[in-house]
Amino acid sequence: MATIRSGTQSALLVVDVQVGVVAEAGDVSRQIDHIALAVRKAREAGVPVVWVQHDDEELPKGSAEWQWVPALVPQPNDVRVYKQFNSSFEKTTLESELAARGVSHLVLCGAVSSWCIRATAYGALERGYDLSLIGDAHIAKTMPMGNGETVEAKDIVRELNVVMQWVAYPGRKNRVVTAAELAF
Q1: pLDDT tens per residue across span 109-125
Q2: Which domains does the chain have, with CATH numbers?
Q3: Per residue in 109-146, is it b (16+ CB within 10 Å) or e — as a string?
Q4: How far apart are CA 94 and CA 81, in angstroms?
Q5: Cα-based torsion angle of the residue sequence 30, 41, 159, 91 in order, rounded to the nearest 10 degrees
Q6: Disulfide engineering: 119 pairs with which of 30, 87, 104, 139, CB 3.0-4.6 Å?
């Protein structure tokens, strides 16, 4: 069983809203606006903002595709974490950054819903954090399933939002909120 995190400090995790990651997701301006709103709310409340940025062979660190979308700009005092796997926790500095700030509650948004957001959500709960997923601030891509079948992006978002309301871990709280409802 995971250690339940003590304390009441929250942190906002903004995961992989990078030019190359969202390029094939279609019009994501509404979700990016919601992420920007969450960032503003976190900063106004003095809550740490943690920017998690992916790199791999298809998304090389420093490339134009690796950069954050122009509407989202990390500030110098924000936390930066770099990853190469779906979960923001695997082989990164995320846990030590959160521990240094006494964080027990993660507010999650970003891209891509079916991979990095899902893996980070489960990783957080498995490591004893409470979790709030911002239901209108995570980005999905339509997923090919083979034989010409696909799962539409909107259905992936809806499915993850439903799952995150019902999944249960002992001693942890998880919920889904909208960016407008979000309060720190």
Answers
A1: 999 999 999 999 999 99
A2: 9-177 (3.40.50.850)
A3: bbbbbbbbbbbbbbbbbebbbbbbbbbbbbbbbebeee
A4: 6
A5: 110
A6: 87
